[in-house]
Amino acid sequence: MEAVQNLVRELVILIILAVTLELLLPHGDLRRYVRMVLGLLIIVAVLQAGVSFWNRDLAADLSWVSLGQPDQEATAEILREGERLWQLGQSRAQTEYEQGLARQIKALAGLNPDVAVAEVRVRVEGGTATGEPGRLEEVVLVLEGESWDKNNEVLPVAAPAKPAPDPEAVERLCRIVADFYGLASEQVTVEYR
Q: Which of 70, 87, 131, 146 is deepest in the core (most CB within 10 A)?
């Protein structure tokens, strides 16, 4: 009943608007276009009321449709597969995160012309199970050449490819990497190959 009242109200408003515009407009082509537009608005109002009746009746007719109970075993299998895929994705993301950090550190170390870094290895703790990226715990800078001992004496490495880098330059690079990533100086170590 409310829909009929709304339809009648809209039609009365449209008819009043049509009469008012017809009185205000001069005789000519513009009056024909205004009549056409107002006629279309009346048709739209009637169709809108009819569609609302049809939608209400359709909703009432679909009351017999019911969703069955989902199969518990199938649901559990879907959840297990989803968990496995989530863990696989987290593992891949963690690996890419570690590789990205290693590339970033190698690029940072490459800005230092005194020390040639051949490889960078990182160790990240935590984060895989929680979805967080994890915390950088250790950085290993792998240098080519001979290594230095505590007394600045060269220790031979099997067939060094390059001469030993300056120990002060290596120490400076370790400090830069540690400071850049907020690590303690002992978390950045150097290996030679």
A: 146
